[in-house]
Amino acid sequence: QAYVGTQSLGVGQTWQNVTGSRALSTTYYNTTNRSIQVITNATVVSANTFSTLTVNGVAIPGSSGYTTNANSMVSAIIPPGNSYILGGSSSVLITWSELR
Known about the structure:
This protein has one helix at residues 2-6, and strands at 15-17, 28-29, 36-44, 49-55, 58-65, 70-78, 83-88, 91-99. It has a 4-stranded antiparallel sheet with strand order 1-8-3-6, with no helix packed on it. The protein has a 4-stranded antiparallel sheet with strand order 2-7-4-5, with no helix packed on it. With 100 residues, the chain is mainly beta. The model has no long low-confidence stretch (mean pLDDT 87). The chain is built from 1 helix and 8 strands, in the order H-E-E-E-E-E-E-E-E. The chain is elongated, with a radius of gyration of 14 Å.
């Protein structure tokens, strides 16, 4: 039980603002031995579009921007060794935070 508790998401991890070291359409990898959580916020410059966080090839769509220049947020848990990439239709990155 003690081992499972120390490996739980959030235990011994902290939120980090990694916006300055992240870019759209760039593949990153979770090189830790634990799952991490990613939360992004991007502005979509076209109505009815959204940002997408793709984790190991599985697309997770963010909230839809119903109007021009709306925010689109998306969050996902990234297992160890998995790749992740934020893309979307004409998005502009605002913030990118990771629990690691």
